[in-house]
From TrEMBL:
<feature type="region of interest" description="Disordered">
    <location>
        <begin position="50"/>
        <end position="80"/>
    </location>
</feature>
<dbReference type="InterPro" id="IPR003607">
    <property type="entry name" value="HD/PDEase_dom"/>
</dbReference>
<dbReference type="InterPro" id="IPR037522">
    <property type="entry name" value="HD_GYP_dom"/>
</dbReference>
<protein>
    <submittedName>
        <fullName>HD-GYP domain-containing protein</fullName>
    </submittedName>
</protein>
<feature type="domain" description="HD-GYP">
    <location>
        <begin position="123"/>
        <end position="319"/>
    </location>
</feature>
<feature type="compositionally biased region" description="Pro residues">
    <location>
        <begin position="57"/>
        <end position="70"/>
    </location>
</feature>
<dbReference type="Pfam" id="PF13487">
    <property type="entry name" value="HD_5"/>
</dbReference>
Length: 371
């Protein structure tokens, strides 16, 4: 181990000791391989010196360090925690057989094998107390945060499956997605639930959940180091405009790139304290427009072509005022399916329903999903 000035650090060197802020927060964990962006960020944070390993840098995904804190929640498992843990167990079981999730896979020929593997992954996750305790803490903080985590994990698993990942890779990706927002448990609820414009300090406090999530997960025995990396990086963006370090392209772990796409999609189609939900079509248009800027375009295309945003049979409202049912979805144009008109704008029922191919009727868009 060698202590050097941060300004003398070189890309490719590996940290021998964690870099810790004045408040005790881990900024970068031991075993992290330095990049130009990491070094620049450390300089900006005013870190004077760092400890690096003398040997050649190891692989980018080192084994996690020995646990430093117990995995049990701080409240010792009170009634509130037990209630959340029971809700988490129920939700995991629900997702294994959820018809809603099943419909989200737009390539039916892949569906049966995917759900067999996905169910096995959730079974494995459900049998590990350390993981379930973290999810229970997230649920207790806000059930909405937990539900978001479940959705993000399902979407991420679909993309990983479509990308040809093996079962061990899918396990790490699914688990990493589930725990990517675990750092939000330390953010004051009144802050992330604020409907007004955030101040700079408030925004920075929320963004710190990535660092806190990394710090939390890297200390837990039984959690893959990849999960901690994804908690740190899932808000980084392909063009370097993300946080906390502004890294870009291949510097962002592939799992974190996939999770970032799933995270923003589910965030857009869900109502937030400060805005209404986007329609799935609007969210897809946003992703497609962000390809190779905010997100890796090949991953965006995998998401768009394998996640069915309008499952067949869904009732929708068109901007024309008509009510329709989705009858067919082209994976290449998921936001513009074929619909069958069942009700006209004046409320009259169509006696002989007819179809519209929205790919050919660009002036007609889906404005809402009818529950």
């Amino acid at each position: 181990m060698t202590q050097i000035p941060t300004g003398s650090a070189l890309p490719g060197q590996t940290l021998a000791k964690a870099v810790v802020s004045k408040s005790g927060m881990v900024i970068l964990g031991a075993g992290t391989r330095l990049t130009e962006h990491y070094i620049a960020r450390l300089k900006k944070l005013g870190v004077p010196d760092i400890s690096i390993r003398r040997e050649a840098p190891p692989s980018p995904s080192p084994s996690p360090p020995a646990p430093e804190v117990p995995s049990r929640p701080r409240d010792g498992g009170g009634d509130g925690f037990k209630t959340s843990l029971a809700a988490v167990k129920e939700a995991v079981e629900e997702f294994k057989d959820s018809e809603a999730i099943r419909k989200r896979l737009s390539v039916p020929m892949l569906g049966q094998r995917f759900f067999r593997i996905y169910g096995q992954l959730l079974d494995l996750i459900g049998r590990q107390p350390v993981i379930m305790e973290q999810l229970a803490a997230l649920h207790r903080k806000d059930p909405f945060l937990f539900r978001h985590a479940m959705n993000v994990s399902a979407y991420s698993a679909i993309v990983g499956f479509a990308n040809g990942y093996g079962e061990s890779q899918l396990y790490e990706l699914t688990l990493s997605a589930l725990l990517s927002d675990i750092g939000m448990t330390g953010v004051p609820t009144a802050l992330y639930a604020k409907s007004d414009t955030l101040s700079r300090d408030e925004k920075e406090r929320i963004e710190a959940h990535t660092l806190e999530g990394y710090q939390q997960l890297v200390r837990l025995e039984g959690i893959p180091h990849t999960a901690a990396v994804c908690a740190l990086q899932h808000h980084e963006r392909y063009d370097g405009s993300g946080y906390p370090f502004g890294i870009r392209k291949e510097e962002i772990h592939p799992y974190a790139q996939i999770i970032g796409i799933a995270d923003i999609y589910d965030a857009l189609v869900s109502p937030r304290y400060h805005r209404k939900a986007y329609t799935p079509g609007e969210a897809i248009e946003y992703l497609l427009g962000s390809g190779d800027t905010l997100f890796n375009l090949p991953y965006v295309k995998l998401f768009v072509s394998h996640v069915s945003i309008y499952p067949v049979g869904t009732r929708v409202q068109l901007n024309s005022g008509q009510t329709a049912v989705i009858t067919s979805v082209d994976p290449s144009f998921v936001q513009r399916p074929i619909v069958r008109i069942i009700q006209e704008p004046d409320g009259s029922i169509v006696l002989y329903p007819y179809e519209l191919d929205l790919k050919d009727r660009l002036e007609v868009v889906i404005s809402d999903i009818v529950q």
